[in-house]
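The authors assume throughout that readers already know how a fold can be written as discrete tokens. The format is easy to grasp once an entry is in front of the reader. For illustration, here is how one protein appears when written out as sequence plus structure tokens:
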Amino acid sequence: MRKFLLAGVATLGTAGLMGAAYAQAPALPSGASPGPVPMQGQSAWTPAASPPAGANNNNNYQAAQLPGPVANPTPGTIVVHFNGRVTTEFQGTWSSLDHRTFTAPATGSLGAVLGNNGAGTVKLAPQAIDSFARLYAGADGMATNGLRYGAAIEIRNNFTGQISNNGSSGASGYSSLETMYIRRAFTYVAGDQWGILRIGQADGIIGIFDNGVTQFQFLPSGNLNGGDLEGNFPQNNGPPNWFLGQAGNEYDNSKLVYLSPQIAGFDFGLQYAPNTSNGFGIGGSNNALNASITGSGTGTGLSCATASSGCPTLSSGPGIQDGFRVLNQTAVGVRYQGVLGPVGVLAYAAYELSGVANYTGLQTAAVLGNTGNLTGSKFNGKSNGLNFGNGGIAVTFAGLTVGGNVIGGRINGQLAPVPQGRSNEFAYLLGAKYVTGPLTVGIVGETGWYQGNVNLAGLSQRRGRAIDTGVSYTVAPGFIVFAEYVYQELKQNGFNFITSATNTTGAFNANSNIHSQGFMIGNTISF
């Protein structure tokens, strides 16, 4: 059975995580101590064909450890590893939001503060150069009784916008704002016979079962679903990552995930998260504007010194967004990995539901942000909990993979609840990729309908469409070059994508339909 599983995984070639086997380090003589870990300046080292490029690896992503880029521990040993990735990209993007005309700003507004005291036009240049770094640290051990255990950390650099500066280029000050932050941090215990339990800030059932395969994230940029190129457009430009695989909103809350052993290629999973935060946030504070919670616009930091709208464990509150805080997020799923003759198959299905905090505030139009008194709007500040299904399939034959993914139910975009009684979401994706030696070529397209702007509940629904194509080439172990093109469209009657305003009737206007497109070339080095 184990050989059957390994053959199936190798045939699928799942995004480099478990797509190939690598030799283990030679066993040490009895009683011998290992020498120093090879590092820069100590010795040259033959790189793995595909170095680890994430916190998830072949030891912690399933019940049984598999051959892969991270060595498998043996009884009484531990494997400590530190890896990284640096990506640089050149991109050009064009969208409906690149041009805008401003009128004279009101006294005290941001425009007045910046000295923009008259009317004028604003235009964005299309070209930019991107660079980012990620660091992956982890340990995978095995007790003398065979119990496996370990931990993993993913660290990334953060970015912020740069405001114009007439005293210098501003590059030095901008760089100092590029902080490091934790993206994933979890521990695990595992046994081949009973499964694996992962606890912490890490992927849920959908992210683990899919791993970007049925969602066709075949480029190092994480194409289409929240990838680098999509992130370079102004906000409000493209569809959300409906399908959730490898999405921060899916893996960045602290949760408990259990995966069963595989039987005849099948395994199942369970997940539970009390809320959408890390528990340490209960005693912390944040710098969110009060405007985003209470509508006061004062900019005072929020904390949970006492029960308030700033508490991550909030179960009810009067803030205008309190009624959309997800609680008790729970998911179940089943997956199949295997080989049917010459064909490799990955397929999964997952069901997810949650509770939601109760909105206890006023339900007047002004409080809810419905200042235009939208005729027919049903938004009352409250929402229903998540209740949706997701599934995907990918079939591989002779290097060609085809498949798709679908999601539908009570969800609004990327794990946001739906206003009470309003439009559910439905989205689907179809893709294909071809791999031959170091070359990968692929294309993927998606279409989806979801509520979008909550003030338009009962009046209109948002539609998104996108297509993404690209190619990558492995120049040397850990060195990949790639190119990508994407086209995106969003439409919602009654919503102005340029000003984020809603009109009084929910009718179509010139800025209710926007388009964007862009291309990117880049390279990534993993070590």
